[in-house]
Amino acid sequence: MKVSITRTQWYALNDLRGLPQGAHMLVMTSAPTDTGAVLEGDKDAFDELVAHISEDLGEGMLTGGAAKALTAMCLKIDPRCRAWLGQ
Q1: d(Cα 35, Cα 62) in Å, to the nearest integer?
Q2: Is 4 helix (H, G, I), strand (E, B) or coil?
Q3: Does pLDDT of 70 surpass 80?
Q4: What is the pLDDT of residue 81?
Q5: pTM score, two decimals?
């Protein structure tokens, strides 16, 4: 699976702490582009990433800008996230 993200999303993603190993590897092996980055990995790694972001959102651990950027990224990864995002 491949997902293109914006520079803002990439910076917010790099500020996350305590990522599970699969999600961590997505970030560490991301390919920079002129407008952001491309994440490439298996579905399990993306599922780990979305789950981690949802926990951080639920616990109020993200700033407003990071929450907005990472929410948009989650929707790119899995449009079904709309249900738990209340959108």
Answers
A1: 22
A2: strand
A3: yes
A4: 84
A5: 0.90
